[in-house]
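Hi support team,

I've been running sequence recovery on a batch of backbones for a student project. Most finish fine, but this one hangs at about 90% for roughly twenty minutes before it completes. I'm not sure whether the input is malformed or the queue is just slow. I've pasted the structure tokens below so you can try to reproduce it. Let me know if you need the job ID as well.

Thanks,
M.K.
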């Protein structure tokens, strides 16, 4: 079976140049979508685009900013970006373009044979990466499925044991500890799945109409946090979201506050008409300023001595992004630490 035709998004404000190059690319066998501004190109970019061919001199945005935003979005991060420029043609310009996220850089005027060969190479690379990601996701999904089966058997056995009239108080305590460990294992499996899907750019949301208040109530009931969580609902509008993923988001933020903070934790929910805002606040040792820029990257920790794999906040960020939202953090000795999530009410 033959490979599907590669799909190109060509962003170029010069109508004559755009027409000529787009026509040549179509004759070379590519599907081509055209945009004349950076904002238009960003609005048109889709995960099924293989390559963005990007002119750097655009009327609204610099090409480097367009490239940065393409790579920053979970939906489009896997698209290869080929930058073209006639004026930014020095070795330093090309190096800067590559450093800022471009996958290739060509200088105008460029021969068609070189342009096509470069795009073909980028398409091969994208498809190889995609295949690797699919294999990795399949492996993790298979392992997670195989782990869930024995966990389900353990849960069933625990439920049977709980109903036994012969259990003593000490034995009830042991069962409770096992039950908590099983729930923790289930949450770790879910974290692993979300992490893999996030890296592969394949996180699918099962959206329903819900509210963060409802999600928070069920999440805290299941989590049974070791410290008091004071929930304040200033308003709690309904939104379109994946309740399982949003539950993970809340759980990770609360667990993070328990692990790294002191005293009471305050979770606040408020809507503003178009978005719903959720914040989790705790006191304690502040996050070092130098750690904040990389805090939401995978395998990063708030402090070198913090435990865990450093995936919790990365997963919070990716779940928020998948819902079209954002997450931010502020931290100081006097004000404590606050993680703030902002989610749109509709998609």
């Amino acid at each position: 079976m033959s490979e599907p035709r590669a799909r190109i998004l060509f962003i170029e404000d010069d109508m004559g140049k755009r027409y000529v190059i787009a026509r040549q690319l179509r004759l070379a066998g590519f599907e081509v979508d055209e945009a004349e501004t950076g904002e238009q190109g960003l609005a048109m970019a889709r995960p099924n685009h293989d390559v963005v061919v990007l002119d750097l001199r655009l009327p609204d945005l610099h090409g480097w900013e367009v490239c940065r935003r393409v790579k920053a979005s979970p939906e489009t991060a896997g698209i290869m970006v080929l930058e073209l420029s006639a004026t930014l043609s020095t070795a330093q310009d090309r190096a800067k373009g590559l450093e800022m996220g471009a996958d290739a850089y060509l200088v105008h005027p460029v021969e068609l044979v070189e342009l096509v060969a470069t795009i073909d190479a980028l398409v091969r690379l994208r498809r190889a990466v995609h295949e690797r990601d699919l294999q990795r996701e399949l492996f993790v999904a298979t392992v997670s499925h195989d782990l869930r089966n024995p966990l389900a058997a353990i849960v069933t056995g625990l439920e049977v044991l709980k109903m036994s009239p012969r259990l003593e108080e000490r034995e009830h305590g042991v069962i409770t500890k096992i039950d908590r460990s099983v729930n923790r294992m289930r949450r770790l499996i879910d974290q692993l799945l979300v992490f893999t899907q996030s890296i592969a750019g394949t996180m699918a949301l099962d959206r329903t109409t819900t509210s963060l208040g409802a999600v928070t109530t069920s999440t805290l009931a299941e989590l049974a946090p070791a410290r008091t969580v004071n929930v304040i609902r200033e308003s709690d509008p309904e939104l379109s979201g994946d309740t399982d993923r949003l539950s993970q988001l809340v759980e990770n933020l609360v667990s993070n506050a328990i692990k790294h903070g002191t005293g009471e934790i305050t979770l606040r929910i408020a809507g503003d008409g178009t978005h719903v805002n959720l914040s989790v606040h705790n006191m304690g040792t502040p996050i070092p300023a130098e750690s904040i820029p990389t805090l939401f990257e995978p395998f990063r920790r708030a402090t070198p001595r913090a435990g865990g794999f450093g995936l919790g906040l990365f997963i919070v960020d990716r779940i928020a992004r998948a819902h079209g939202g954002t997450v931010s953090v502020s931290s100081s000795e006097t004000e404590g630490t606050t993680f703030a999530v902002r989610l749109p009410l509709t998609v």
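--
Follow-up from support: It reproduced on our side and the slowdown came from queue contention, not your input. The radius of gyration is 24 Å. No action needed from you.
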